[in-house]
From TrEMBL, chains A, B:
Binding locations of Mg(2+): 75, 77, 79
Pathway in which this enzyme or protein is active: Amino-acid biosynthesis; L-histidine biosynthesis; L-histidine from 5-phospho-alpha-D-ribose 1-diphosphate: step 3/9; Amino-acid biosynthesis; L-histidine biosynthesis; L-histidine from 5-phospho-alpha-D-ribose 1-diphosphate: step 2/9
Pfam families for this protein: PRA-CH
Protein name per Swiss-Prot or TrEMBL: Phosphoribosyl-AMP cyclohydrolase
TM annotation in the entry: none
Originating gene: hisI
Protein keywords: Amino-acid biosynthesis, Cytoplasm, Histidine biosynthesis, Hydrolase, Magnesium, Metal-binding, Zinc
Gene Ontology cellular component terms for the protein in this record: cytoplasm
Predominant cellular place of this UniProt entry's protein: cytoplasm
Record carries keyword Metal-binding: yes
Species: Desulfofustis glycolicus DSM 9705
Lineage summary: Bacteria, Pseudomonadati, Thermodesulfobacteriota, Desulfobulbia, Desulfobulbales
Subcellular location per the Swiss-Prot or TrEMBL entry: Cytoplasm
Superkingdom of origin: Bacteria
Function of the protein: Catalyzes the hydrolysis of the adenine ring of phosphoribosyl-AMP.
Residues involved in Zn(2+) binding: 76, 93, 100
Length: 126, 126
């Protein structure tokens, strides 16, 4: 049984960094509690705890862009993990980009460095 | 001027993921406040806010294992950043491993998957 150090953060949640297995690209960061971590281990798909909705959340449950777990890494302090995943649908970001980190700091401003894969308006219909 | 969303977290700190430029490997995660972010931009070396010591911290100030900034990426919600770095000394982890994520989940336990680069006892002398 793997014990993570949930008491390290002010809100009892730990960050999960998501890295694409094939490319090594960092796709996103989200938060986990014990329930989300357990669901991820049991199902083989990335689950998180939504801070805004205060609910368990399977990545891709609305968009279909699920994240199949390839491996899970744990850091020295057991307070951060990495999900290495196969990203379904080619996009992790709810704004339609492959990665949430689609902007780079350049000359004191943010420059977009990726191309959109989908239009969020059509994927997240009301 | 780049505005990050420091109000998104309970303690006013944001996670900074550190990725090695040459290998794409995720080295560590630490936290920043505005002061740490500004120092990083101004000096070109990664700075953080230490949650345990409650102080500004330049990575490598004790070990010499500084992190030279190659680029900085910002996520869609402006509440997480990536420092892409050249890691000096070949090791980011205070336990002597190249990456803090030197263990993998295997059969419900943690297996070490990296080799130590240095002995922490000799680097962090009292």
């Amino acid at each position: 049984m793997i014990q993570l150090n949930f008491s390290k953060s002010a809100d009892g949640l730990l960050p999960a960094i998501v890295q694409e297995a094939e490319t090594g690209r960092i796709l996103m960061l989200a938060y986990i509690n014990q329930q989300a971590f357990t669901e991820t281990l049991v199902t083989g798909y990335a689950h998180y705890w939504s801070r805004s909705r205060q609910t368990l959340w399977q990545k891709g449950e609305t968009s279909g862009h699920r994240q199949e777990i390839v491996e899970i890494l744990v850091d020295c302090d057991e307070d951060t993990i990495v999900y290495v995943v196969r990203q379904q649908g080619g996009a992790a970001c709810h704004k339609g980009y492959p990665s949430c980190f689609y902007r780079r700091v350049e000359d004191g401003a943010l420059q977009v460095v990726e191309q959109r894969v989908f239009d969020p308006e059509t994927v997240y219909k009301k």
